[in-house]
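Dear support,

I submitted the protein below through the web form. The confirmation email said the job was done, but the results page showed an empty box. After a refresh the structure appeared. I'm attaching both so you can tell me whether what I see now is the final result or a partial one.
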Amino acid sequence: MTALTLSTAAAPGLRADAIVIGVAKGAQGPVVAPGAEAVDKAYDGKLAGVLETLGASGAEGELTKLPAPAGFKAPLVVAVGLGAEPGDDEDAGYDAEALRRAAGVAARALTGTRKAAFALPIDGPGAIGAIGEGILLGAYSFDAYRSGQDAGTAKARNGKAPLAEAALLGGKPRDAAHKGALARAVAVCEELNRARDLINMPPNDLTPAAFAGITQTAAKEHGLKVQVLDDKALVKGGYGGILGVGGGSAATPRLVKLSYRHPKAEKHLAFVGKGITYDSGGISLKPAGHNETMKCDMSGAAAVFAAVVAAARLGLEVNVTGWLALAENMPSGSAVRPGDVLRMYSGKTVEVLNTDAEGRLVLADALWAASQESPDAIVDVATLTGAMMLALGSRTFGVMANDDAFRSTVYEAAEEVGEPAWPMPLPEHLRKGMDSTVADIANMGERMGGGLVAGLFLREFVGEGITWAHLDIAGPAFNEGGPFGYTPKGGTGSAVRTLVRLAELTAAGDLG
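What the results page shows now:
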């Protein structure tokens, strides 16, 4: 991963391969952003005009390269768009997400570069953290399965390695707040990128057992407690939902409990992740064209795993338990059938009307298991429904909850860290559609509002009196299009930063 440093060095004398500056979209044309004063001065104060001549406008995501001015040790200047220039308010500045995205665009463009200096606007620790995150997330690439590469060497796009080192100009190496912001960015992004790696792994390698093994290795590394229930333990415990979904695969299911404990913690959060390592739809087989990316159906479990490890690395004063419900949904003679009834871990019975509505079944068992510890709040994360993608598109996840204030807290946390989200309701009238003539509840209800129906189903398996939220990340979990900002093609690590922020808020006593 790209090495980050803080530097008070002046841009002209810094030995680097490129200097990254920000340019905003002003009312009269491009505007050179703060942090690039030395670069602008070297162009006799005419850098904005030069950029405009080259076609730059300052629009978000725009990138312009030009030769560095005489006297600079770096040969290249990279100008990256920050979007609209902030207003005249003296407190106005570039928001964290604009900095994060700009840094990500630049880092990705600098693939194959040894060192770059980022002279973007820094007005405090928040900006340092955002720029650091953008660099680390934007420089990400997944190349573990490319042939002809040297073992242990990260080779990225077109055979080039990711940006090796980035210096944040204007950051103070001896300032505790600046160092802390950068250290937080490194911890969170390393774990988020680990989640991306898991999502991008092919399902023949990332089976439920293999995923569980990876959590055990990480637990040992970071001093976490881990418990893995294999198929025999699941049978003994009565986890009918996980067993039903995983019953059709030769790769047997697992339920992983990953625990971080702080000696001074007064609050306990539980995170529950859907971990379908491959989803064929089961007997209700997915149609052609819908199977190719279904290795990403474990993105919720990857996010939970990453968030728990990040909380431990940050030493947050809160107890966090992650529950990873891992199974592979395959059709076979032993697969669950439409019409089957499963007895869940909670004791409730579920009539399975569609085996492709499997995520809610494994989550139901994990939610009930999490409820037995009476945490202060439970948050589940899942690539649960195509309906949520129809409602919110491919970049926004839905937030549902059994408490309006908590739903607002989760939504605000997501927006704060730059993960687009939207609060969604749980309409009571949709619950009746899941009434079953043979069981306590069916796993399907009305087609319209299917994402909300799924949330209502999950609510049935949350312990009484426990605050709960459900994040449906079906849209943003896997990017099938081209990269943008700091988001790569493939696995994105959606919801990791939201979960970490919720843990931080809980540790600070600010959880709503």
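Response: this is the final, complete result; the empty box was a page-load delay. The chain is about 35% helix and 20% strand.
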